[in-house]
Design a protein that fits this description.
Length: 293
């Protein structure tokens, strides 16, 4: 067990709250005002992790908080301080932890594909009279959006993106992802698979350090901005210039950003997988992950 003295763990908790406040405070202010932001609010509406939970700091498994008592749910008091009751947590969550570990390792084992050009967002508004974010205008006419989708085709491997495709767009996708085939199809170049590292991080919380959850949130936030800039929505009033993936120059820009996200995601995926491996009684992965410590 690692022991954190009180000044150290309190400083980490304070730093984590300051870091997350920069993300949660504007969202909560908009929510009170009845306003919405298609980029900044997405991670709080699409994902189920509440702002208050993101702000709560946890040291992760195997750490004693010296001087702490009654630290909260899932913690137990010891003579040295408060620590997570890992055995009780794993009794409830062991199956989930193993599933997440398998998905992380399987995703990392595949080569990254950088040729989708973000057309999943286009497929979500393909030949439909009502867009998902209907409070924001499109920067192209419906016929032009349809022409791009039909000319380029769609190669989306992520089920949680594919399930929002319009009915006419689904047959245009090269793959037919399902929840059951998620482990077999996800690959490390996918923006949504890398955004979902935040989901796996908070589902593992409090068993993983909150700094890791925040690192994954920060990556997901940056990915979401690129995701929407490459979409057919017009977000120029928000100060976000489009990535015009309907052009060769735009596709090259998108692919370059996609590669950078792949590189940023790899060590985060490895850290999450390593945390799972330490919790599980035996390896539950498809081989050693790249970047594993």
């Amino acid at each position: 067990m690692e022991v954190l003295e009180q000044p150290e763990w309190q400083a980490r908790a304070d730093a984590h709250r300051r870091r997350t406040d920069a993300w949660t405070a504007p969202h909560l202010a908009r929510r009170r005002a009845g306003e919405a932001h298609p980029v900044e609010d997405f991670l709080f509406t699409y994902y189920s992790h509440r702002p208050s939970r993101l702000a709560q700091w946890h040291p992760g498994a195997g750490v004693v908080l010296a001087g702490a008592a009654d630290y909260g749910r899932d913690y137990t008091d010891t003579p040295g301080g408060a620590t997570l009751d890992v055995a009780a947590l794993m009794e409830r969550r062991g199956t989930s932890v193993a599933w997440i570990a398998d998905l992380l390792a399987a995703t990392a084992s595949r080569p990254a594909f950088h040729g989708c050009f973000g057309l999943h967002e286009w497929a979500m508004v393909y030949r439909t009279p009502r867009a998902r974010h209907d409070s924001w205008p499109m920067r192209l006419a419906p016929g032009d959006i349809a022409a791009v989708v039909e000319e380029r085709g769609v190669r989306c491997s992520h089920f949680d993106a594919f399930r929002f495709f319009t009915a006419p767009a689904r047959p245009l996708n090269v793959l037919r992802p399902t929840r059951e085939t998620q482990r077999d199809l996800e690959q490390p170049g996918c923006l949504h698979a890398n955004m979902d590292l935040y989901k796996w991080a908070y589902k593992l919380s409090p068993l993983v350090p909150s700094e890791l959850v925040a690192d994954c949130f920060e990556l997901a936030r940056d990915i979401r901005l690129v995701d929407m800039r490459a979409s057919p929505y017009d977000l120029a009033p928000l100060g976000h210039e489009p990535i015009r993936v309907e052009t060769a120059e735009g596709r090259a820009e998108y692919a370059g950003l996609q590669r950078s996200f792949t590189e940023r995601a790899a060590p985060l995926r490895a850290r999450l997988h390593a945390a799972c491996a330490r919790l599980l009684p035996r390896p539950r992965s498809v081989g050693r992950m790249a970047h594993d410590p």
